[in-house]
């Protein structure tokens, strides 16, 4: 047993399982296939060797298959993952699947669209949501939109609030930030070379 293996925790096992499932989702999403459900009676621990192999394969993939350092998956933490899933579905049309049984916790896989971009998940936050207006806890994702104003209206209709109003990135885009139902900050970005 290596030093890293001896220090592995149950959270590491859950993360490995989530990453392995993310690989499957990415592969199935790009091939148009369906997700394979875990075999009946198996647990994350039963699959740890397969997950480790999948993680190693992903890490060792040639550069043209796996871009080192590029974000490939996100996880939005929420005290109420179902409510957050409903918010992102209503605001942006994300397709969500309940992967809670596989992950061993409330966990909704999110397919955000087709083409360039990444998919991710909404998962159970350990503890309560941060206070609205408090410091950002975690990374901020920015979501590309075709029409800033229409997206802002959808966000607010779904229960989101404005964190930083629309502003121009001159000659590039319109940007703004919002707060979701779990007090997470996220941005929206409409490319527009005429923004000023």
Outline of this structure?
Helices cover about 35% and strands about 25% of the residues. The protein contains six helices and eight strands; from the N terminus they run αααβαβαβββαβββ. It starts with a helix and ends in a 5-residue tail after the last strand.
Describe the structure.
The protein is of the alpha/beta class. Helix content is 33%, strand content 24%. The protein has helices spanning 3-6, 10-31, 48-59, 81-92, 100-103, 148-157; strands spanning 73-78, 95-98, 107-111, 119-124, 142-144, 161-169, 173-179, 185-191. The protein has a four-stranded mixed sheet, sandwiched between helices. Strands 5-8-7-6 form a four-stranded mixed sheet, with helices on one face. Helix 4 (81-92) packs antiparallel against helix 6 (148-157). The longest helix has 22 residues, at 10-31.
Oligomer: single chain
Secondary structure tally: strands: 8
User: Strand order within the widest sheet?
Assistant: 1-4-3-2
Q: What about the largest sheet?
A: 4 strands, mixed
Give the end-to-end Cα distance, rounded to a whole number of Å: 59 Å
**Series of H and E elements:** HHHEHEHEEEHEEE
Q: Name the beta content range.
A: 15-25%
Poorly predicted spans: 1-12, 14-19, 21-56
Helix content: 25-40%
């Amino acid at each position: 047993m290596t030093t890293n293996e001896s220090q592995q925790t149950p959270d590491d096992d859950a993360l490995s399982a989530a990453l392995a499932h993310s690989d499957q989702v990415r592969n199935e999403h790009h091939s148009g296939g369906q997700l394979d459900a875990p075999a009946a009676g198996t647990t994350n621990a039963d699959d740890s060797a397969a997950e480790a192999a999948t993680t190693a394969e992903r890490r060792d993939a040639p550069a043209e298959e796996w871009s080192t350092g590029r974000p490939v998956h996100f996880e939005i933490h929420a005290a109420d993952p179902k409510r957050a899933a409903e918010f992102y579905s209503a605001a942006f049309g994300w397709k969500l699947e309940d992967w809670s049984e596989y992950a061993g916790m409330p966990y909704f896989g999110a397919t955000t669209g087709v083409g360039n971009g990444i998919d991710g998940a909404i998962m159970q936050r350990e503890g309560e949501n941060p206070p609205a207006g408090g410091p950002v806890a975690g990374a901020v994702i920015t979501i590309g939109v075709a029409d800033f104003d229409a997206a802002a209206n959808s966000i607010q209709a779904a229960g989101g609030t404005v964190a930083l109003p629309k502003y121009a990135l001159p000659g590039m885009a319109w940007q703004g930030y919002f707060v979701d139902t779990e007090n997470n900050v996220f941005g929206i970005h409409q490319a527009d070379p005429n923004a000023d």
